[in-house]
Amino acid sequence: MLAPPRAPCKPVGHALHVGTMLAQEPLIRLSVFAAVLLAMVALEHAFPRRPQRLSWRRWPSNLGLVALSSLLLRLLAPAGAVGVALWAESQGLGLFRWIDAPFWVAAPVAVLLLDLLIYFQHRVFHAVPALWRLHRVHHADPELDASSGLRFHPVEILLSLAIKAVAVTLLGAPAEAVLVFEVLLNATALFNHANLALPAWVDRPLRWLLVTPDMHRVHHSEIERETNSDFGFCLSSWDRIFGTYIAEPEKGQLGMVIGIEGYRADEQQRLDRLLVQPFRPG
């Protein structure tokens, strides 16, 4: 019987690299997050796609959700998915290590596969009733802008981290690739939820690669067929490959109704209501 691969001995320089990455990971993610958020807010103001009525009244709750989620993650899993990747490396775990894949192969393939995972995770959260109640907090936003890309229930965020942790371990994804993926996921979520009017000559070619705001907005339609489409967050190819792509909403970008019936009222947007929404009847 073949023995499982053993974790190779790591030099002191590697230990310093690990410590540096863990120390810098929050700063890198926060810096990119702040820069992209500010850029999206500025662009939304300059080139709005749809008129907004509740814009600034929704922001405290949407930002409150991401603040609570970030606090929970730091308390329960301070190293995050990057820490899981570094731990798996120290144990010699994961497919890429077992097949001795070079970094230049493992890193981009890991980013692609993690993005594919998020696509299927998104579909599962729509299909399973208990998970949909959590994800419904995101879809219950009556308007769409960059802050909507932050509006996820903390329990959904924790479940998502657990799913990513398992995938990162099984793949043996390089920590650098996991960090790139996490930064891309956050940045593209802000971008594709933005109330941003991209010119058609930009949107059409761009959406062959990335999920654009007009593409993802279809996913937030009140029409069920449209809600169950365009699940991608970063790469748009998964929706085309797996038959869930819808190019435009039935009622057009300006005529479509966003959100969920019964959850559009102002009082439903309060942070306390969003936190208890998945656990209330209805």
Automatic annotation (TrEMBL):
Location, primary (coarse class): membrane
Species: Roseomonas nitratireducens
Localization in the cell: Membrane
Name of the protein in question: Sterol desaturase family protein
Transmembrane segments: 26-43, 63-88, 103-120
Pfam families per UniProt: FA_hydroxylase
Key words, A-Z: Membrane, Transmembrane, Transmembrane helix
InterPro entries in alphabetical order: Fatty_acid_hydroxylase, Sterol_Desaturase_Related
Superkingdom of origin: Bacteria
Domain Fatty acid hydroxylase: 109-244
